[in-house]
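Example 184.
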Amino acid sequence: MSSVELNKWIGAFLATALFVMVLKIFGDALFPAHHNHSAPVFLVESGIVTEHSAQAQTSETVSLPSLLPSLLLAADQAAGKKTARKCLACHTFELDGVNKIGPNLWDIAGSAKAARSGFSYSSSLTDIGGTWDYDALNSFLTSPKTYAPGTKMAFPGIKKPTARANVIVYLRALSDTPIALPTE
Ligand code: HEC
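Predicted structure in complex with heme C:
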């Protein structure tokens, strides 16, 4: 083997070793973050948590028909309004409010999905179709990304069913003609 060739092999070996070291450093730096419960906001985008929320979504969808009507009937609209402050960074709630990062949400319950004029929706949301009935709102607000993969709504969701029900009855009230509450 010529010394030039030998140098090439040594170079290749060192490059590989370096690559493995870099991978390990990155791996070590990233891995503990998955277990860091004090920073949940950053966890949402990770594959691990998405997988978990997909599971949670499945089980909640199954229990929806019996669970949700009773939750909605017992829901606290004033508490929902407070929780909905989280939405204000991106949405307006009042009649004729402007579209911000997200569309205006006046009269959204019972309205067609992805239909606010002047707002450019993701194809993910326009493709779903139908109206924002209670089930759809519940599923979307549980985990926007699970309900509409590829949605532009960068919001992790409201995991607690009672808090979600509160927000949904608040959204329902944002209308001149609110849709009927479900019957048990
Ligand atoms: C970080 C910004 C952001 C936050 C926070 C946010 N949203 Fe959104 N929202 C969006 C965007 C962007 C869209 C459009 C999604 C798309 O096109 O995929 C959207 C869409 C929606 C829609 C569908 C509207 C339609 O016309 O079909 C509803 C309902 C909604 N959001 C409710 C909420 C509620 C309730 C909250 C608070 C609990 C919230 N959002 C928090 C950005 C946000």
